[in-house]
Design goal:
alpha/beta; tRNA processing; single chain; ribonuclease P activity; 4 helices; 39% helix; EC 3.1.26.5; RNase_P; nuclease
């Protein structure tokens, strides 16, 4: 991940939840906000509702890979947090990818969208 840094600090997550734009779908909620940097910062939230650690880590790995493979389509300069929902545990990879791209397009994160 050359162009993306991880969000790790609690206050950064809270700032995004409070002041960022959001879009939701059955598998995830995505929050974003411009960060005045030349690169994206990315964070993931997987709550204990999803299951035990093995399940949560699998969902996190899948979402991270979806972001990585589509990173060239996403505009730089945003803080992005992806909150996994329970349905993400049972969804296929292709469905998660489709939902993520649709949600990113709603937020105007994709390079081809007109915002």
């Amino acid at each position: 991940m050359d162009h993306t840094v991880s969000l790790k600090l609690n206050h950064e997550f809270r700032r995004l939840y409070a002041k960022g734009k959001s879009a939701v779908n059955p598998c995830m909620a995505v929050y974003c906000r411009k960060n005045r940097l030349g690169y994206n910062r990315l964070g993931f939230t997987t709550g204990t509702k999803l299951g035990k650690a093995v399940v949560r880590n699998r969902v996190r790995r899948r979402l991270r890979e979806i972001y990585r493979t589509n990173e060239d389509k996403i505009r730089p300069g945003y803080d992005i947090v992806v909150v996994a929902r329970v349905r993400a545990c049972h969804s296929r990879y292709a469905e998660l990818q489709r939902q993520f791209l649709r949600t990113a397009d709603k937020l105007g994160l994709l390079s081809g969208s007109g915002t």
